[in-house]
Each structure stands twice: as structure tokens, then as C-alpha cells.
Amino acid sequence: MSSGVESVESLSATTHRPHPARSRLELYPVTGETRARYADMDPNAHLNNLALESLHEDARATLTARVFPGVHDPGARQLRLITSQNVVHFLAEAHWPAVIETGVGVGRIGRTSFVASSALFRDGVCVSVCDTVLVAVGDEGPTPIVGFAREMLRELQLRPSGRDEWTR
User: Could you give the CA distance from residue 48 to residue 27 in angstroms, rounded to a whole number?
Assistant: First the structure.
């Protein structure tokens, strides 16, 4: 009886390295900056991977709050955004103290989901990129993204030619 699996390696495929353009801050329509905390360091004085992922999460929350007003307020929201996949690439070391520039935009738009694509920069060097698939979910399960939200997602797509008026 065959399991249909060609090799052990095929069971654990990884994602490809990010496109080199992802390392340019001007690609992202929404930017900001934050200070790394002393507590974000590991024993080697690097900003640890969980701290960097937390910065990606904050950038995503900035984006989703613009597109889906009230989505982070359990009493006011019409739908929830559920993470179905999260891929983070750590590209360079970052040390404390640090001011981290963040960039975020929309990588892809589907019927009920979209990809929030973010990057972190220290002194102009991209230290990490992240792609998170977020699914719009209502009381009955996944729900189509329509109207204003779909228009906003389109407006916030990654910009190969540079930033626009959405920069904060």
C-alpha cells in the first residue's frame, strides 16, 4: 500500500526567498517607525525573531484597521480576520538600540482573503519580510470581501514604482 508521498523532503516544502524588490521601503504604501525595546534582545544582543514578528503584526494591524474600520473592536466589528498562513523571512541581524522602519501593503487579493505583505528596516537595510494570508470570516464562515474594503485593498497594493499619498 502506497502513501502517495515521493520523499520525506516533499512533506516539508519551504517557501522561496523573497523577491529582491521586497527589500525596498518605497515598495510599501503604508510606512511607519517604532523603537525596539531592550527586552526584544536575545543573549547575543540581536532583536529576537519573536520581537521582529511582533513588529510585522503591528504593521498588519495598522493596515487592517484602515481597510476594515472597527475590525479590532470585538463589540463593533462586522467580521473577523483570521490568519491562515504566516511566512517570515529573516534577512539580516538587527541589534538594540534600534529604530525600525516598517512598511506594509497588500500583496494579493482573493475572494475571501488577502495577503498582507510587510517589511522591517534598520538603518535602511531590510532585516525581515513577512507575508500573512488573512481570511475574512463572518458568523457563517469565510465571507467575500466587497465594496469599500476591496477598493481599499486595491489602493494599498504593493507599489513597484514607489509610495503614494497613503504613507503615514
Answer: 25
Instruction: Name residues whose C-beta falls within 8 Å of residue 73's C-beta, 6 or more positions apart in sequence.
Output: none
pLDDT digits (tens, 9 = 90+) for 123-138: 999 999 999 999 999 9
Residue 99 and residue 97: Cα distance in Å, rounded? 7
Q: Regarding beta strands 125-138 and 80-90, do their DSSP bridges make them parallel or antiparallel, or are they unpaired?
A: antiparallel
CA quadruple 33, 35, 23, 151: dihedral sign: negative
Positive or negative, the Cα torsion across 22, 27, 29, 31? positive
Nearest one of 92, 99, 90, 107 to 50, comparing CA atoms:
90
Please provide the DSSP assignment of 80-92 as one string. Answer: EEEEEEEEEEE-S
Read off the pTM: 0.88
97 preceded by a cis bond (ω within 30 of 0)? yes
